[in-house]
Amino acid sequence: MKAVAMPTVSRVAVCGGTHGNELAGVYLVRERLKRRADGTEPVSVVTVMSNPRAVQLCVRYVETDLNRCFTRATLSAPVSETSPYEMIRSQELNALLGPKGSAQAVDLLCDLHNTTANTGLCLITYSDCDWICLHICKHLQREMASTPVRYVHFDIPLNEAYSLDSVGKHGFAMEIGPQPHSVVRSVIFSAMQEGVQLMMDWICQFNSGTLFEGGWVDVYTMVKNIDYPRDSETHVITAAVHPNLQDRDFCLLHPGDPMFLSFSGETLRYKGKEALYPFFINEGAYYEKGIALSLARKRRVEIPSVLVNKH
Amino acid sequence: MSSRTNISCLQEAARVAIFGGTHGNEMSGITLVNMWIQNSAEIERNGLLIKPFISNPRAVEKCSRYIDTDLNRAFTPENLSAPDVEGLPYEVQRAKEINRMFGPKGSADAYDVIFDLHNTTSNMGSTLILESSTDLFNLQMVHYIKKAMAPHTCSVLLNEHPQLKYSTTRSVAKHPVGLEVGPQPQGVLRSNVFESMRTILKHALDFIELFNSGVTFPPCTVDVFRVQERMDYPRDTNGNITAMVHPHLQDCDWEPLNRGDPMFLTFDGRTVLYEGANTVYPTFINEAAYYEKQQAFMTTGREILAANAIRKACK
Fold first, then answer.
1. pTM for the whole thing?
2. pLDDT band per the 50, 70, 90 thresholds, residue B4
């Protein structure tokens, strides 16, 4: 593939506390704000605590999930004092860091998250051909010795993309697990700190004219979600994620493999025809969304060399 | 009488309750109790009244630890004797109701045993929590459970500390027993944690059935960890934590912590060491709910408690 010239990544946003109980991002944003990290780096960075009220209460959200409020429809809906807090906040963040889809939007938005699932570090984004995001992923994979780094792709068009990271021209959620909600684990915090630092390093090198050699990246594209087995009348869950599947994010799941262990001792197996990669296995916040795990297809994506286009 | 025939005769344990959802986001107990309310076959035992019960239904509905105040700290004499007025915190109302249904606390009419089911984000494994070092019935029961669970480890935490002891939901009963199983994130149900809790309860109910049938349990000893101190995170002047549990201490519940061992890691990478003179055994390391209670972990000391032989008293 020929080298691709891309514009400078001049303005970056680092956001944490989009979910108020995902604490590695909360503490990292607090530390950056304390140290006034913004302005000391060679690239223009703004650090934002996305959902301060939820952070204050140490809950995922106050009225509605902030990280589902960034669709075009929600961003352009009329708001009043009685609108849900997070809807008002999403429009504020869009004004500050966007507007989404416009030339004024930040060049790159990195939104910090934690999950109870054993995902390692994932960059989660809506594009499988965003060379900046893919190169950053490759850089983290190369440099982070003890943390698995993966690229997860949700194939959703920009208008329907619902998360904060979709506001930037380039963007991703940096998701690290496993960590319980409302807890900060030092290894997770350190991994997140390292991930953000490496991202900044890449951006600075890119902006100063470094050519990053192409190659390939494994991309996991979300295919479907699987809910817990539930009682048909009460809708109460009747099984837990099977011990053989628990904590095995990104280990290939074959048709017939155990998926759930019912409370009456029955093993329920994966009935799909295609072997897929499970992730977000047993994420605490997803019980209410009807998701026990998500399944992805993996494919190797070739990426070109990239070079900054200073013109 | 020789010591061989020194047997304590105790009252039959006729009424037993199993509480889930004292904290509305601790999912193993909630799931087990709801399951047993629907179908109690698994928990039925001869001659025993066993009541599964959701202690904080509003918190369970919301999947949060509590609504107004922690139910598991609410069973104080002041709260239990508070008049029925408007505006009482939900959990205080609930404590009074539970005290009416399963107590009154301290009286002859109280339930014999209450098992209160909890989960923790700490790596405590299966833990039984006792509030008294002289409750022979409870000591013999935990001894029985530990033997039955082997080789799976069951730790016993004893909280008899005058300042750190708290007024638990289960304290309404004559013989309160806490079951604490972790690690499990709040709001999450992990199959292995769920099954461990289920198995502990099975053995506990087996013991009570055997006891009620007249079996004599010989003298025994129980290894316990006795609560000593609460250790908070280092904090700044605004009360925000400035350090995290050190990676060397994280997940090392029940393992010895010695002077000079790493304890905390500040956000800017500095290690804070444990300075205590004696070896301690930390537990509840990095429990999510305890950040607001100013607790990073608890220190304990190892002790061996002895219990007399016991047998049900003849009528």
1. 0.96
2. low
Q: Per residue in B126-183, pLDDT tens?
A: 999 999 999 999 999 999 999 999 999 999 999 998 888 889 999 999 999 999 999 9
A113 among the known binding-site residues?
Answer: yes
DSSP letters, B89-158, are -HHHHHHHHHHHHH--TTSTTS-SEEEEEEE-SS--EEEEEES-SS-HHHHHHHHHHHHHHTTS-EEEEE
Distance from CA of A262 to the nearest CA of B (A): 9
Phi, psi dihedrals of residue B297, rounded to the nearest 5° = -165, 170
Give CA–CA dist B190/B184, Å, rounded. 7
User: Taking every pair of C-alpha atoms in chain B, what is the biggest distance, in angstroms?
Assistant: 67
Mutate to test the interface with A, among B119, B123, B188, B193 (most CBs of A within 10 A): B188
Tokens of B154: 């069951």
Residues A150/A136, Cβ–Cβ less than 8 Å: no
Residue with tokens 């155990």: A258
CA of A63 vs chain B CAs: smallest distance (Å): 12
Q: Report ipTM (2 d.p.).
A: 0.95
Q: Which two tokens stand for residue B114?
A: 């209450």
Report pLDDT for A310: 75
B118 lies within 8 A of chain A by CB = no
> Starting from the edge strand earliest in sequence, which strands make up the sheet with B243-245, in order?
B243-245, B262-266, B271-273
Q: Do B189 and A288 touch (CB under 8 A)?
A: no
Nearest CB to A240; choose among B64, B194, B265: B194
Size of chain B in residues: 315
In tens, the pLDDT along B69-123 reads 999 999 999 999 999 999 999 999 999 999 999 999 999 999 999 999 999 999 9
